[in-house]
Amino acid sequence: MDNKVLKNEEKAVFTLRSLYKKYGYLPFKMSKFEEYDLYVRNKDFLVSERVITFNDTNGRLLALKPDVTLSIIKNTVDEAGCKQKVYYNENVYRVSGSTHEFKEIMQTGIECIGDIALYDIYEVLSLGAMSLNEISSDFAIDVSHMGVLKSILDEASDNEVFKKEITSLISEKNSHEATALCEKYQIEEKYKNKILSLVTAYGNMADVIKKLDPVCENEQSKKALCELRALCALLEKTEFKDKIKLDFSVVNDMNYYNGIVFKGFLNGISEGVLSGGQYDTLMQRMGRKSGAVGFAIYLDLLEYLQSTKSEYDVDVLLIYSEKTDTLSLVNSINSYIEKGICVSAQKSIPAKLRYKKIVYLDKEGC
Amino acid sequence: MLNVALPKGRLGEKVYAMFEKAGYECPSIKENNRKLIFENEEKQVRYFWVKPSDVSIYVERGAADIGVAGKDILLEYSPDIYELLDLDMGKCRMAVAGKKDFYDDNTRTLKVATKFVNIAKNHYASKCRDIDIIKLNGSIEIAPILGLSDVIVDIVETGTTLKENDLEVIETIVPISARLIANKSSFKFKTKEIENVVESMKAQVKSND
């Protein structure tokens, strides 16, 4: 197939689909609409709270899907020992942060739901890296662990307002205001320093884990760090080890995410194109016993990736007239196409068409 | 190449001097002309002058890797960026001001004139006070005098403008200063350059203390 025909995002859909299939992920196709109720109950999980709603023919309130994960969880079986791996490629409808208007967002991703073990987390994270690598080799993935963050904040204070504010400052890498906030809430020096070390922790996974060793003292954070260490050991063996960094500014809602969370970037695109993590807490909130991990890639952002722009819209502009014999027109078009030359047959020269060469089929007619 | 958005004006010039000290000089910037973009190929840096309230947009959208913006703008627009350093310059405060004899008895909706709609809304929402926002783009101080609003929410530097218009500060909402901000994606791909700038700037801020 002519590769130039496909746009970045279309190419990505095809290559990613075959990648996920290789690892045993099955396609998941869902309806465009979902009952609004599903989103009301998990409002904070959505990237934006606003949802496009409408009444269906029997009066039920439906919504145009703002999210895929909730629908997938709803439709999976919850049985001990069973694990489902799915991939999807869907459009979702959300309010965009910069324009405050509804936008259609093309999203592709995978979810692994069931009895989650270290391997599954590794598999999803490395599939995330492989996905970005398929699109552009100039990518970066930042990994964080909500367990580390949560336990360190829990031991510092039980004030929910403080935890919320400090989490948002950590996501901004804002150490000066984090210091001020800790002082305002009279957080003990020892805990303040721990929090600040999270704000500035960034870099090679193994190095950051070493730095965090003295910070993670309680049971919960030690366990989380252990998980990170095990994951790091596995990732060290992959070709992507230099592209995956530890960064606690990757923060997802603690009411839903409990373990590893990650975000992926492509050089040249100003915002994250991949976002994922382990969301056992969301599963529990939806009455499920098992765990889950997954990610989504925002394909519409790939439009911003530079692709080679062609100088011409068509190779040949073929001008014919009323008098031209249609059969000879058909023959001459076919002869171009057989040679792999793209041709546009027109009666007159279109105003905006860029062409390499112009051919008059019927000299007298023009 | 590190792209830096600087706020036009005195603050921007001071900030550029800090970048210069950090080893990212660009002599052409000092030429007196109307150019807005300046580049130093050797130091791999490009500066551009933009309207101060637009710096966060350039950085959030990735046209600039880093930039310097006032905390007022960051609070008002909440861009999705990293706020890496408080430069401790351009200091002022966001405050509520009103006529000297104004007393808020909480019995009716408070009329608030401001350029900073979101900051004003958040401030009063945190106190559960019902307000009527009047968005103005300049000369905010005359709103209470003409009876357009009860109070204003605005930046107060020395308080001279307020005093000359018979207004006074009722309460301070938040202290403001210039902040070094970075695009989240650029930070991943130009980590070393950005960290170098932050480190050097940090040392300069400290030595100014």
Report what the structure shows.
With 366 residues, chain A is of the alpha/beta class. Chain A is built from twelve helices and 15 strands. Chain A has a nine-stranded mixed β-sheet with strand order 1-5-6-12-11-10-7-9-8. In chain A, α7 (175-184) runs antiparallel to α8. The longest helix of chain A has 18 residues, at 118-135. Chain A is elongated. Chain B has a six-stranded mixed β-sheet. A five-stranded mixed β-sheet of chain B has the order 8-7-9-6-10. At the A-B interface, loops of A face β5 and α7 of B.
Most extensive interface: pair and counts? A-B, 20 and 17 residues
Shape of chain B: elongated
Supply Rg of chain B.
19 Å
Could you tell me how far the N terminus lies from the C terminus of chain A, measured between alpha carbons in angstroms? 36 Å
What is shown here, in short?
The complex is a heterodimer of chains A (366) and B (209). With 366 residues, chain A is of the alpha/beta class. Chain A has helices at 8-22, 36-41, 69-74, 118-135, 146-156, 160-171, 175-184, 189-200, 205-212, 219-235, 280-285, 326-338, and strands at residues 26-27, 33-35, 53-55, 61-64, 83-95, 102-114, 139-145, 202-204, 244-247, 260-266, 274-278, 291-298, 314-319, 343-346, 355-360.
Write the layout of secondary structure elements.
The complex is a heterodimer of chains A (366) and B (209).
Chain A: H1 8-22, E1 26-27, E2 33-35, H2 36-41, E3 53-55, E4 61-64, H3 69-74, E5 83-95, E6 102-114, H4 118-135, E7 139-145, H5 146-156, H6 160-171, H7 175-184, H8 189-200, E8 202-204, H9 205-212, H10 219-235, E9 244-247, E10 260-266, E11 274-278, H11 280-285, E12 291-298, E13 314-319, H12 326-338, E14 343-346, E15 355-360
Parallel strand pairs in A: 1-5, 7-9, 13-14, 13-15
Antiparallel strand pairs in A: 2-4, 3-4, 5-6, 6-12, 7-10, 8-9, 10-11, 11-12
Chain B: E1 2-7, H1 10-21, E2 37-40, E3 45-50, H2 55-60, E4 66-70, H3 71-77, E5 82-86, E6 92-99, E7 110-114, H4 117-126, E8 131-135, H5 142-145, E9 151-156, H6 160-164, E10 167-176, E11 178-182, H7 184-189, H8 191-208
Parallel strand pairs in B: 1-3, 1-4, 7-8, 7-9
Antiparallel strand pairs in B: 2-3, 4-11, 5-11, 6-9, 6-10
